[in-house]
Structure formats: C-alpha cells, structure tokens
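Module 6 notes. Inverse folding takes a fixed backbone as the condition and produces residue identities as the prediction. Think of it as a translation problem where the source language is geometry and the target language is the twenty amino acids. Below is one complete input and output pair. Work through it position by position during the lab.
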C-alpha cells in the first residue's frame, strides 16, 4: 500500500475530516473550506513555513505548528482559530510591518496587496513595535519591472517560482535576520542579470508591492495569477 492510498481521520475545529497520509494540515483545511491565513504559501510551490501565519494548535502539544509543512496524523485534533492563534498572527503581522517600510497609502499595490488584506481580515489596527525604517534601495534597472526592497516580506515566492517553475534561479536570499535581502544572481542589479528571462512570474506571484511592473497605475496593480493552476499541475508531475 502506497502512502498516497493511506487514509487518515482527524478533527479540524471539531469537524471530522479524512485525508491522505501525504497531505499537510493546510491542504486538508483548504479542501474542507477551513480558513488558515498564509503569506509565503502558494499551491504548486514547495512549502517552506517562512511566514508562520499558518500556525495552528494541536491537542496534546504546547507547540504551535505551521500547517503548511505539518503532515496529518491519525486521530490528530487541530485548532485553527483561537484567541491564542489570533494574538500570535497579529504579532507576526505587526513585526512584518515594522521591519521594512510598508506605507500602504503611497504603495503602488494599495488595494491589491495580500499583506494589507490579511491585516484587515484579522483586525490588525496598529503596530505596537517601533518601526525600524531601514534605508533600502529601489532597483528599477530592469526594462519592465521594479523591485522595491522596502515592501519585501521575504516570503521567497519569487525565489521558488523562478527556480522550480521557470528553471532560471535568478533570485535568491542573501544575509540573515533583519539584514536578509532578496537578490538577483550574485547581488547585482536586476537589469544586468544574464539569467532573468523577464517572464513576470515573480512579479505576479509577489504578495505585496515589492515587485511591480513599470508604468502601471494603482488600479492596474492586481496580480494576474492565472498560471497558478499550471504550477499545481507541474508540482504534481514532479512528485
């Protein structure tokens, strides 16, 4: 019997659900229309648990676990919505907002930003932490696109889609902690990259205004993510 054919039974928010043994809690929750917030996760790309927005409670454990990389187990009881989780999620979002320069009022993606939408959804009204206000550059050297490091949340969606789908691996991450930055090639300007195909997948998969197309108005900043179904298909073929 293969692992895909092994069915596990578990509870999510008191509901009895069934799942394959190779599925994660997030996958099962989405199949059953149970909302778990995410920022770094995209169907079709390797889950990495970077943003920690999808933390859930497991009965019998004091630890909070990321739903996107935690596989289901027989008899598992999962809680996706509690005061404890809501508090942690708000704190995570506040830290994200305070680390860079997220000023929604002047951002090109205002009204079309997953970070902004998620903050509104979970009721984050202000930030308790002091803003760091780092001096970060805006790289407009590419002929079509711009990367604004002030808006980047290090979700690495761009890194993964460029590597796993486009096969170019133009993007990567340099540094650690608050010094971490998304870079092209060996930390050169985007416009000088010899590996970038300007396919725009990284731009349209970005959850914030960090990557955007030149000459677009605010109302045109909605990301076209129709290719996500294709990502899922390609991921399933690789597994």
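Target side of the pair, the amino acids:
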């Amino acid at each position: 019997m293969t692992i895909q054919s092994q069915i596990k039974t578990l509870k999510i928010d008191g509901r009895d659900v069934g799942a394959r043994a190779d599925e994660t809690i997030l996958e099962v929750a989405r199949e059953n229309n149970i909302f778990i917030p995410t920022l770094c996760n995209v169907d079709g790309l390797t889950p990495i648990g970077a943003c920690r927005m999808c933390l859930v409670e497991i009965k019998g454990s004091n630890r909070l676990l990321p739903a996107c990389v935690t596989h289901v187990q027989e008899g598992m009881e999962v809680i996706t919505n509690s005061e404890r989780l809501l508090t942690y999620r708000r704190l995570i979002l506040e830290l994200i907002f305070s680390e860079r320069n997220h000023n929604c009022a002047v951002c090109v993606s205002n009204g079309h930003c997953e970070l902004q939408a998620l903050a509104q959804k979970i009721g984050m009204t202000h930030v308790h932490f002091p803003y760091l206000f780092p001096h970060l550059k805006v790289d407009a050297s590419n002929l079509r696109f711009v990367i604004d490091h002030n808006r980047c949340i290090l979700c690495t969606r761009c890194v993964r889609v460029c590597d796993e789908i486009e096969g170019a691996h133009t993007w990567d991450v340099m540094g650690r902690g608050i010094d971490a930055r998304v870079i092209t090639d060996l930390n050169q300007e985007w416009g000088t990259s010899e590996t970038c195909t300007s396919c725009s997948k990284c731009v349209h998969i970005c959850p914030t205004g960090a990557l955007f197309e030149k000459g677009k108005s605010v109302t045109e900043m909605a990301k076209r993510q129709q290719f996500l179904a294709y990502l899922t298909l390609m991921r399933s073929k690789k597994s």
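Reference fact for the lab report: The chain has a mean pLDDT of 91.
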